[in-house]
Specification:
The protein is an alpha/beta fold. The chain has one domain: UDP-N-acetylmuramoyl-L-alanine:D-glutamate ligase (3-Layer(aba) Sandwich), CATH 3.40.1190. It contains 10 helices and 13 strands. The chain has helices at residues 38-48, 61-73, 110-120, 143-151, 164-168, 182-189, 196-208, 248-263, 266-281, 289-294, and strands spanning 2-6, 10-17, 28-36, 53-60, 77-83, 89-94, 99-102, 128-132, 157-161, 177-178, 213-217, 223-226, 232-235. It has a 9-stranded mixed β-sheet with strand order 5-4-1-8-9-10-11-12-13, sandwiched between helices. Strands 3-2-6-7 form a 4-stranded mixed β-sheet. α2 links the parallel β4 and β5. α8 (248-263) runs antiparallel to α9 (266-281). The longest helix has 16 residues, at 248-263. The two termini are 28 Å apart.
Length: 297
């Protein structure tokens, strides 16, 4: 089974307006409400590709109930810890101006964090655990590595999508897959990376530190994978107009896992992952299965 953990899921209120002027009343002409958060996005795209997952993490208040309810409507099993105080965040996204107002979300207590550990205790050999996104300020910033330490030796296949030390500190636990983008890779190594050779060298260094597979998203340039056998895979994308890049990286992870589970072939996993990420970037929300299939090269 695949388990996704979203520490701070959200209700995304996505609107379009002809103009946005500070200090004035602004009118929208298009509005949509989605549930989101990186792990939530992975679960939604996995479902569209025909793979089951369990969505976990923390939810609170009426917005938390909405998030869980929408996931269940989409046929996704949920197992969130319900936080007593506050409410799950609301993010306002103005798509035409690229302006976002992101909520902070609830404060998670030590006891509530411990409840998440008790749920993760159910994972066993062969299960996948997707840890993605930032860790809320109310939680220890080493939570990712503490979770992988807790699960160490159980044969759980960890997928980590995070920035900086949040990512690199997990490498000693040999995650199955890590997925930095180009900017995150440059931040880790404090160096601009313009060529594939530079990116490959960085991927090799991350693999030597413990990552089994290193998947690097490169926006319109597609993606690059260094698999656990040492083989390099490169995948381009179809040309198109980027409408909404939010969730593209999460879609890539979902597509990669779906492709790997379907064929146990890393080249195919990269192809499906890149198609899923591209399809979402070209859509107003997370891509449908049909949109993903149209992006397969």
């Amino acid at each position: 089974m695949i388990y996704t953990v979203t520490f701070n899921p959200a209700v995304d209120y996505v609107v379009r307006a002809h103009t946005v002027k500070q200090g004035e009343v602004n009118r929208t002409f298009d509005e949509h409400i989605y549930v989101g958060g990186k792990g939530v996005n992975v679960s939604l795209v996995l479902k569209r590709l025909g793979f089951e997952s369990v969505a976990s993490g923390f939810t609170a208040g009426y917005t938390g109930q909405l998030i869980e309810g929408e996931l269940r409507k989409n046929g996704i099993q949920t197992d969130f810890v319900r936080v007593k105080s506050g409410f799950s965040r609301i993010n306002v996204k103005l798509t035409d101006s690229a302006t976002q107002l992101n909520g902070s979300g609830p404060s998670v207590s030590k006891n509530e964090l411990q409840l998440l550990y008790s749920k993760l205790e159910l994972l066993s050999k062969g299960d996948f655990l997707v840890l993605s996104g930032s860790v809320p300020g109310s939680m220890p910033q080493n939570t990712y590595e503490r979770i992988l330490e807790f699960l160490s030796g159980r044969g759980v296949l960890a997928v980590v999508d995070a920035e900086g030390k949040l990512l690199t500190n997990t490498l000693k636990y040999k995650p199955f897959l890590i997925k930095p983008n180009r900017e995150e890779l440059e931040d880790i190594f404090k160096k601009e990376m313009l060529t594939d050779d530079e990116i490959i060298q960085a991927a090799v260094r991350l693999q030597k530190k413990g990552a089994r597979n290193v998947l690097i998203s490169l926006d319109e340039d597609g993606a690059l994978l260094l698999d656990e056998t040492g083989k390099i895979h490169r995948q381009g994308t179809r040309k198109g107009t980027v409408i909404n890049p939010v969730g593209a990286g999460d879609s890539m992870i979902a597509g990669f896992l779906a492709g790997y589970l379907k064929k146990k072939d890393y080249a195919y996993a990269l192809k499906l992952g890149t198609a899923a990420g591209t399809a979402t970037a070209f859509s107003r929300s997370l891509a449908s299965k049909t949109a993903i299939e149209k992006q397969m090269l």
